[in-house]
Amino acid sequence: MFRPCSTLLATCVALWSMPSAAFTNRAIRAALTSRRFAPTMATKATEAAQQAAIAKIVPCDAASLKECGARLRDGELVAFPTETVYGLGCNAMDADAITKVFEAKERPLTDPLIVHVNGRSSAFELWDTTSQARSALDAICDQFWPGPLTIVAKAKSDVPPILMANTGFVACRSPSGDIARRLIDAARVPLAAPSANKFGHVSPTKASHVWDDLQNEDVWIVDSDAATSPESSDVVCNVGVESTVAKVDCSSECAGRVVLLRQGAVSLQDISECLQKAGLGNQFHVETKTQKTISDHIATVAPGQSIRHYSPDVPSFIVAKDRCDDASELSQAERSFLSTSVIIDFGGILKRWEPACVAYRDLSAGGDSAQAAKALFDTLRWTERVEGAQRVLFPEIVEDPTANDALVLTLKDKLTRAASGTRIDSLR
Ligand code: TXA
Ligand code: MG
């Protein structure tokens, strides 16, 4: 059982970086009573506490969203679906409300939050731009908003430092999801919202996922349909993976830079082509700083991009391409290994091992990256419920470098992080 230990270690490192003693005590308490540590640390008292859920599932009709809007203005938390994943929202201009989000997620204060707005003009109320930055931001917002692209730019002085982890740069995104847009309108304030999961766990794409992680927090969870049962909500997160994060930086004397910090449905090439089309190709250097996830070290490039991320509570591994391609007969030892393994496949690469493993799902039998991305987080969470599962195996995905398929890169990145960068080349 090394997962809980490594997660606990990561949590301790995260807690160590928190400045306030009260916050630290609260976060440690929350970590110790969290469902994620239940297998090793739960006591009768904490189990009883967990039964008394505090969170509330609310419908997404107009009256409910109006109430949610008022709750957000009052400094409380509301989790809501976007076209990517569920966000845990609060008033982005209210430092106390932001603190509650960090507490509820057990997230280190070093990891800044994205602000959700309904249009460019609201973002420019938070961004402090030069004319050069403005021209790039205009072009990028024009092309990609509303949609799954988050843009980081220099912040105005009244943006709460805690929102930005004291970086002086604020991230904004205009979601295309209908419920998210209606909620932002109802709140009449910009909404800071990280993914609505416990820190380090798999991002949620259903109300029931949010419930699983945050039922002991003072959070309202907007269901995607009018049902009140946490199990009955549909997937509304049609993209299924988090937004691309790109930073527009014009602080140097020479050319401006656009730096990709996280891969999502929008690619570096898409952004580069957008700037060229706007006649800004010569003024901006476009580059990626997403971490190479295949080596097992902790990222320092973008906060929140640590290699251990999106992890299910079951140890997970990538099966090296050579082993995936090796079609020879399985040995007895390999069969025994597979009999306690769950396989999450892509494009049928590991289909021939389906009869030997404890459970099998293919994210997309046809190898469609959009279909796979949409299914990914729900499937990672499903592995936690498979009886007899001792580990999860993913095939190593080799992308076509000429295809400009952002979602294949995203899929590969998420699976690598879920596996903490660990690749195996034999089944034992
Ligand atoms: O699709 C999404 O982006 C979802 C939905 C809810 O909008 N949100 C989301 O938030 O994924 P979160 O907090 O889980 O991830 C935000 C990422 C983190 O990697 C964070 O470090 C980065 O964006 N980020 C936020 N503000 C930043 C800033 N000022 N500078 C650099 N990176 C930033
Ligand atoms: Mg997240």
UniProtKB/TrEMBL annotation:
Chief subcellular location: cytoplasm
Catalytic reaction list: L-threonine + hydrogencarbonate + ATP = L-threonylcarbamoyladenylate + diphosphate + H2O
One Gene Ontology biological process: tRNA processing
Signal peptide: 1-22
A GO term for molecular function: ATP binding
Recorded family membership: Belongs to the SUA5 family.
SUPFAM superfamilies: YrdC/RibB (SSF55821)
EC number from the UniProt entry: 2.7.7.87
Gene source species: Craspedostauros australis
Protein name according to UniProt: Threonylcarbamoyl-AMP synthase
Domain of life the protein comes from: Eukaryota
Binding of L-threonine, residues: T84, H116, R173, A193, S243
Keywords: ATP-binding, Cytoplasm, Nucleotide-binding, Nucleotidyltransferase, Signal, Transferase, tRNA processing
Subcellular location as annotated: Cytoplasm
All copies of domain YrdC-like, residue ranges: 62-266
Enzyme class, broadest EC rank: transferase
Biological function: Required for the formation of a threonylcarbamoyl group on adenosine at position 37 (t(6)A37) in tRNAs that read codons beginning with adenine.
GO cellular component, one term: cytoplasm
Binding site for ATP: R107, S195, S203, R262, Y310
